[in-house]
Amino acid sequence: MSDPFGAEEAPPALDTAQDALFLDFDGCLVEIAPRPDAIIVPERLSAVLCALAERLDGALAIVSGRSLPELETYLSGFDGPMVGSHGAESRGLEEPPLRPEGLAALQAELAGFAADKGLLYEPKSLGAGLHYRARPELQAETEAFATRAARRFPGFEVQLAKMAVELRPRGASKDGALARLTRRAPFAGRRPVYAGDDVTDEPALAWAEAHGGYGVKVGAGATAARFRLADPAEIRAWLTTAIGGDAWDG
Ligand SMILES: O=P(O)(O)OC[C@H]1O[C@H](O[C@H]2O[C@H](CO)[C@@H](O)[C@H](O)[C@H]2O)[C@H](O)[C@@H](O)[C@@H]1O
Fold this sequence. Notes:
The structure is a single chain. With 250 residues, this protein is α/β, with parallel strands linked by helices. The chain is built from 7 helices and 11 strands. It has a 7-stranded mixed β-sheet, with helices on both faces. Strands 5-6-8-7 form a 4-stranded antiparallel β-sheet, covered by helices on one side. A hairpin with a 2-residue loop joins β5 (120-124) and β6. The protein starts with 18 loop residues before the first strand and ends in an 8-residue tail after the last helix. The structure holds the ligand O=P(O)(O)OC[C@H]1O[C@H](O[C@H]2O[C@H](CO)[C@@H](O)[C@H](O)[C@H]2O)[C@H](O)[C@@H](O)[C@@H]1O. Residues 24-27, 32-36, 39, 64-66, 122, 124, 129, 131, 133, 161-164, 166, 198, 200 line the site of ligand L263DTV3. The ligand O=P(O)(O)OC[C@H]1O[C@H](O[C@H]2O[C@H](CO)[C@@H](O)[C@H](O)[C@H]2O)[C@H](O)[C@@H](O)[C@@H]1O binds at residues 24-27, 32-36, 39, 64-66, 122, 124, 129, 131, 133, 161-164, 166, 198, 200.
């Protein structure tokens, strides 16, 4: 694909003997949908992730901005490690969640703003999101509101996402999650490979590049990643190839 931001090349085949693989969820494994609850998760996805995790000796983790319970529901057949809420909560890592004070009050404020403005409010296990896809003209106002909310609730910070602005626990990050994961088995000593599509993924893509591995940017846009694939369908095909599978058919 042609892109003004470099990273033209497709990634090499995964090296299952030495790679540790970290995968974003929305926009990477599944296509972006008009609403968070409207995504379509291909039936084979969990089975492909399980097979690939086995080839990687368990060194495969999902690293997402989604709430952990949602990830567990959408990928119910996959039992490997998962990091949710932009690094603030995890499964299989024995890490306590980052739960700042004021979550309920913060959520009530964001829900009220959404109701007033006709935005989609997304309650999250450790934060909240405001989706302005239906009212894109309100992006600046929504971001300004979120910035003011983060001042009143200092345990939280603003996280921009595709057509959305979120408040997540302060200090949570996907690159921080990668740093922690790669210090422990079965990830330690392997080459970090991260794939993701959004600004929420850029620090993790840069982290993989800076730590002996590489990033795969999904879709268009400026990126720290060396490699690029066009969309989640190409990501799924790349994963399937690594397990010797046939062409992805949904
Ligand atoms: O880190 P990710 O797995 O990419 O999650 C980031 C956010 O994804 C979701 O929102 C995005 O996807 C929605 C469904 O396609 C889309 O409607 C929305 O516009 C996108 O921003 C999710 O709702 C958020 O909680 C995640 O943080």
